[in-house]
Amino acid sequence: MTATHNLSAIATTDDVVAELRARSAFVTVSHVKPDGDTIGAGLALGIALKRFGKRVHYFCQDAVPRNLRFLPDSGLVSSRLPADLPADALFVFCDMSDPARAGDAVAHVARENVLDIDHHLGNSRFGKLNYVVETECSTGAVVMHLLRGLGAPIDADVATCVLATIMTDTGGFMHSNTSPEALELAAELMRCGASKERITEEIFLRKRVAATKLLGEIIERMHFDHDGRYCYSYVDDAMLARTGADGEDIEDTVNVLRGQDGVEVAALFKAIDGEIRVSLRSNGRVNVQAAARRLGGGGHFRAAGLTCNGTLQEAFQAVDAALLAEGL
After folding, report:
1. Long-range Cβ pairs for the range 145-150 (8 Å, 24+)
2. Can you tell me the mean pLDDT for 296-301?
3. Which residues contact 269 (CB under 8 A, 6 or more apart)?
4. Which of 33-37, 105-109, 143-147 has the weakest average pLDDT?
5. What is this structure's pTM?
6. What is the largest CA-CA distance in the chain?
């Protein structure tokens, strides 16, 4: 399956609700290297659909991260597709602007059987139905529109999954996308039984000692350029081996770089397992989504990512040039 850029094809809530009612089987699809938004959005929708008597399978090519395994139904997420899926099963891609982010295992899915639910700028609208609400703080918040349209009860399980998506993508309500509407929805979900305290503890506070050691090494390698407006660092395989950390222990580290005094843009380069992935964060003056797009990536105005080819030094230079082109 390849992305198709039909930018007029935005489905209405009624369109999507009708499709959800008409289909009997679903596969919610999370992107590789999953975060709380892609996992939580798929789980929230899947739990609700199962209560309407639908068959639901949760798919992710990579394992659910440790800090998300407290979410209801997270233990059912699998990297394998059932052999007996009906031909008209609807694959619901959550929180990705391009289907390639889901990995190779679902590349065969026909566009007629794809629902694309997202909130990213520049979504390529690759599904039969594309339900993209760029003004929402998370894909889970987009899913809430559908749950309301379905008349689905929002119990503690569903509410926990959706609140986890909001807290993930707002950085625990610290990022600029923490709108009044996001806070109002969070309050509603807490009244439905979601525990903000538990989500905070599981996703943000509980860190392994290895993660803290790794953070120390990343901080030691910080560089400041452009009169201190730009801070970047890196992590590589040797650093992981030395500290006993793994890829999951890197989450949110880029925000530490961004939080340094005077920094407007931060980048963390992850040279792991033969590829270089880059996380970008901005204070809002520089559009890092546009910078990432110059190098084949994407994301949001203040938070974006991309994959670089070549050496780490070449990646440093390419990202620096892209950021300069966007006004760093």
Report:
1. 145/13, 146/13, 146/16, 146/17, 146/20, 146/45, 146/117, 147/44, 147/45, 147/48, 149/13, 149/14, 149/16, 149/17, 150/17, 150/20, 150/21, 150/48, 150/52
2. 88
3. 232, 233, 234, 235, 276, 277, 278, 308, 312, 315, 316, 319
4. 105-109
5. 0.87
6. 59
273-294 pLDDT tens trace: 999 999 999 999 999 999 999 9
Q: Give the residue from 296, 325, 224 showing the smallest Cα distance to 266.
A: 224
- Nearest in space to 265 (alpha carbons), one of 289, 250, 290, 285: 285
Q: What is the pLDDT of residues 68-118, one digit of tens each?
A: 999 999 999 999 999 999 999 999 999 998 999 999 999 899 999 999 999
**Contact (Cβ atoms closer than 8 angstroms) between residue 133 and residue 109:** no
CA–CA dist 129, 131 (Å, integer): 6
* Dihedral, 198, 204, 208, 214 alpha carbons, nearest 10: 180
Rounded-to-integer distance, Cα 43 and Cα 56, Å: 10
